């Protein structure tokens, strides 16, 4: 039997991974938070259904998984789902699944080992351990005994232990009564009893009169308290309109009105100061603005002059450049004049064409150069005239200087002063606006306070019109009067309650008939208590005599009652010695019958215990030298350990080494411990499956193993697979993935 494939469609946050097909040796690997653990939980729930609850920490997701598991057996394939589980295919208990075939949370140990081995042995060898146990329980149930063979005292057993004890006590009591009846006489008791009874009657008549006097006194006090309450309630009706709530509202509102009036006064003073500041600052701003307009006008003129000055400076640079070039042309002009003179002399001496041409050319050149010089001088004179005009204009606006740079520096200084003055005006405007905002806030506050004052006055006026008073002092006086009346009513009610308890009116009516009773008696509590003590003493004395006189009949009644409690199915009567003897015989027979049954049950239980011990010894057949557990463990450890035994007395497994040393499992190394319990699981699994092979589901069983030990344990799993067992190994350990990846026979399924 092995798992062919499975699919988890929906299980909590786990997404559908599709169909997962399995081989003989499988590793399902996934790091944390990839759904490995949820896949394992869902697989167990699909396999075992409700029996999966036996596994610890498997209910992280409450709902049942949706999906299926396909199981391949020799008979064919079976599909497991919500309705069909492994329980329907194999008679294997939930404890056996958990302790043999499924290892969770790296736990290879077996819960309740002796119990598990006993259950498996019973099933495999047909032992009668369970039947013997049930038979023992049935004997104890029928005979009404405890496991220690004592009488049961449970309700369902009729409290037999207590009943036997009471029976023995009753038998002793009957014996004592028989002896007492022979010794005691009954004649002198009656005379003394009559004398005491007469005195008691006289005292009780006097007590009745005292009680009437007390009721009369109670009625008088209660009537007085009731009258006070009624008068106070009548007066209180006129004061009902005066409430603590209205008084507190008036008082608090009046306080608020005074506070708000103070606030208005303070706000008006602050408003006055703020308006003064606004006026002062406004005047200052107007003066500065007047001065600034003059400066602003100058600024306009200066900006215009500055623009013209800049253009003039550019022309000045241009003229200077031309003047410089003109200076460089002076030699040319001299050369031209000399050549003109020479050409003219040549023309005078010889009338040649060349001299005419030269004379004409140099004449033209000289005239051009002369014209340029005259023109530049005129431009320079014009520039100097304009510059002088600008200097005069700037001087009128406060800008003085002789040179360009000096004038430009003065303009820059003026511009800086202008911007500062402009910024100063802006700051003053902001300051005035802030003051105006403050004034608006104060006005709003005053307006709001005035509205609140009006509301407060309206509230007070409503209260005044309600109570018809104009002064709070008068209101307080009325309220105190009301409290005084309420106090008198409470005190009166307390008096009534202390005298009459609840529903005093009804009880006062009941006391009314006593208002004229026992007028000759002055009730005093001390005298009344003394009378009660005397009556009590007389009753006690009378009771003793009555007890002696009636003791026999009462004892007969008590014995009758006890006998009927012990044996309710009988109807006992005890009116004399004959009845007493009859009860004695029947109770004695009842006790003897139960004791005989108890002895017979002890014999039967001892026989069953001997049989049970013989049956338990058969558990050793699962272990021992010739057992499959010993063979598998020896094979896994390569002959280091040769025998695995189970000691019935200590209910403990013992292993024997090759050298004869016997050890308990906890004394083994980690690897040997894991191999031992794997061998036990394997052997038990084969027994349960009738020597057929199945599957093991492992949840990181070797997570704590060292690297060397891990290789040994993994090799052990390979050998188990070679025997035909299917291994489904869940792990988040990367080292396991690396080891299994080296084996081509291992199918690796990664959870992502």
What would you say this structure looks like, in words?
The longest helix is centred in the middle third of the chain and has 85 residues, at 244-328. The protein has 18 helices and 12 strands. The chain is flat. Helix 4 (129-143) packs antiparallel against helix 14 and helix 6 packs antiparallel against helix 11 (472-500). The protein starts with a strand and ends with a strand. 20% of the residues are buried. The strands form 3 sheets. It has a 5-stranded parallel sheet with strand order 6-10-11-3-12, with helices on both faces. Strands 2-1-4-5 form a 4-stranded antiparallel sheet, covered by helices on one side. The model is unreliable at 120-127 (pLDDT under 50). It has 752 residues and is of the alpha/beta class.
Map the helices and strands.
Elements: E1 2-10, E2 20-21, E3 25-29, H1 36-48, E4 66-73, E5 76-80, H2 94-101, E6 102-103, H3 113-125, H4 129-143, H5 160-183, H6 189-237, H7 244-328, H8 330-349, H9 353-396, H10 404-467, H11 472-500, H12 504-511, H13 525-566, H14 577-616, H15 628-636, E7 641-647, E8 652-657, E9 662-663, H16 670-688, E10 695-699, H17 707-722, E11 726-731, H18 734-741, E12 746-750
Parallel strand pairs: 3-11, 3-12, 6-10, 10-11
Antiparallel strand pairs: 1-2, 1-4, 4-5, 7-8, 8-9
| Proportion of helical residues | 55-70%
Q: How would you sum up the major sheet?
A: 5 strands, parallel
Separate helix tally = 18
Taking all Cα atoms into account, the compactness measure Rg is 64 Å
Report the uncertain regions.
120-127
How far from one another are the termini?
29 Å
Major beta sheet, strand line-up: 6-10-11-3-12
What is the beta-strand fraction?
5-15%
The SSE order reads EEEHEEHEHHHHHHHHHHHHHEEEHEHEHE
Output mean pLDDT.
79
